[in-house]
Amino acid sequence: MMTCLCGQKHGIGRRMLLASAVAAALPASTRNAWAQPAPASAGPADPALIEDLVAGNHILYDQGVVDGFGHISVRHDKDPSRYLLSRSMAPALVTADDIMEYDLDSTPVDARGRTSYLERFIHGEIYKLRPDVTAIVHSHSPGVLPFADTGVALRPMNHIASFLGEGAPIFEIRDAAGPASDMLIRNAALGHALALTLGKKSVALMRGHGSIAAAHSIRHVVFRAIYTEVNAHTQAEAMKLGTPQFLNAEEAAAATKANDGLVGRPWELWKRRPMGK
Ligand code: MN
């Protein structure tokens, strides 16, 4: 134990906090010298996967799910312990050259001076807990926020949004970071806590922040992120009129199965406009 200037005795936790504050104050070159070596690359990803990831970035902007903020990732096709995510930039401007490779601790394989999204831990920590998940979207889409902030359950209004039938839990960052965080998923511990809230579901809301969607392909996750936003608007409208009748669990499960092979149809439509085709 040590006695602090405030007159109280603090244990190791306080000293570690001080040490990290000192490290953060050092020039980047000094900090980098202490850093772990970069993880090995899984090699070049399938160009078609990169193309879909770039398209997903543009589509999510075009459909009003992301704006200047938000991101989409995909697991590397050659190695499930690597994922691909744009460098820190607005999704609508992403090109293939902006795609970076990360390990599941969200350490870049070859940053080459490119800046990473602060909240990349959302992706790495969900991939760690969910081997079935291949693609993830994080957004601040405006229709979903009223549900995240009121705690009103987001539920499927129609068969297209049937994936919401399993529930969309709400992540409360105060439970993981205390009452004075900046709301961001800025480290692995917060990413892990968010991944635990998501559990086996497809969508989780983040109080005071936004939401995440997870799926087994880029097309499926884009579909879910878009229809989560659409469903939120529809449900809010319905709740002004009365008490909505939602899909029940059996209807939702059956519709999700039916929709699984249909995501290609809207994908081609969504892709045409933002990709200039
Ligand atoms: Mn965010």
The CATH architecture of the largest domain is 3-Layer(aba) Sandwich
Strand order of the largest sheet: 5-4-3-6-9-8-7
Beta-strand portion reads: 5-15%
Structural class: alpha+beta
Helices and strands, in N-to-C order? Answer: EEHHHEEEHEHEHHEEHHH
Q: What is the tally of helical segments?
A: 10
Distance between the termini: 65 Å
CATH evolutionary superfamily of the largest domain: Class II aldolase/adducin N-terminal domain
What is the count of distinct domains?
2
CATH class call of the largest domain: Alpha Beta
Any idea what the radius of gyration is? Answer: 20 Å
The total count of strands amounts to 9
Instruction: Estimate the helix proportion, in percent.
Output: 40-55%
Shape by Cα distribution: globular
What assembly state would you assign to the polypeptide chains in this entry? single chain
- At CATH level 3, the topology of the largest domain is L-fuculose-1-phosphate Aldolase
Uncertain spans: 1-31
Rounded average pLDDT = 90
**Are any ligands bound, and if so which?**
manganese (II) ion
